[in-house]
Write a structure and sequence with these properties.
Shape: globular
Number of strands: 17
Helix content: under 10%
Oligomer: single chain
Radius of gyration: 17 Å
Strand order of the largest sheet: 1-2-5-4-3-6-7-17-14-11-12
Length: 217
């Protein structure tokens, strides 16, 4: 009976976590923070589900140079430093294997990119990536370096409204938004049949999630 209840609890947690996003945003201090939450919901905290997220790996790029950045857990985010809102930063992390009775195990991976200068083109750096092309309102969706035609993405604007976008045949996502504030573009649950083991648990599916954030002055 106890085992059954535990499995149901894990299943509920799996549903909750699969709906979450990981993204980068600037703090009032100008530092960058990694958030784990529903974009319109309560932030995960420590102690709590924030502790379940693997400590992210972070780096920033200056031209062709890449430099690792330290990451430190805080109460409701991971602090990235030294880095500021003027840097272009990428991170990657993962969540524990999720096991739901009657379904194959799943391992979610999260990738996030903070793009400081919307007028500058970026280069691919993540397994699932949202890469600004340098043209206003244009981002290319890539998986393992290849374009993702037809992929669905969600754009959340500073007025807290969301719209669904669909990539064209070249993997390009196009949109318009001149609102001042933080913009969040996400791709959720892009799955592949890539089995493995993590933390002693087997999984059959790998789930990839990507986020791109930037601020319009």
């Amino acid at each position: 009976m106890i085992r059954t209840i535990a499995c149901l609890a894990i299943g509920l947690l799996s549903v909750q976590a699969l709906a979450h996003s990981v993204w980068i945003e600037p703090l009032p201090s100008g530092e960058l923070a990694i958030r784990f939450a529903e974009p319109d919901g309560k932030l995960e905290r420590s102690p709590g589900h924030l502790d379940d997220l693997q400590l992210p790996t972070a780096w920033k790029r200056n031209g062709t140079n890449t430099a690792s950045i330290s990451v430190e857990k805080a109460s409701d985010h991971f602090r990235i430093g030294p880095a500021s809102a003027g840097d272009s930063v990428q991170i990657e992390t993962a969540y524990p294997v999720m096991v739901t009775p009657g379904r194959p195990g799943r391992r979610p991976f999260f990738y996030a990119r903070w793009h400081a200068h919307t007028s500058a083109a970026a280069t691919p750096a993540l397994t699932l990536d949202l890469v600004p092309t340098g043209k206003p309102g244009e981002v290319r969706a890539l998986f393992r370096g290849k374009a993702l035609p037809g992929i669905k993405a969600t754009l959340r604007t500073p007025d807290e409204k969301e719209r669904e976008l669909t990539a064209d045949n070249e993997g390009l996502l196009r949109f318009e938004s001149s609102q001042s504030g933080l913009h969040l573009l996400t791709i959720a649950r892009h799955r592949e049949s890539l089995p493995g083991f993590a933390g002693g648990l087997a999984y059959d599916l790998t789930s990839h999630n990507a986020a791109l954030t930037w601020t319009v002055p």
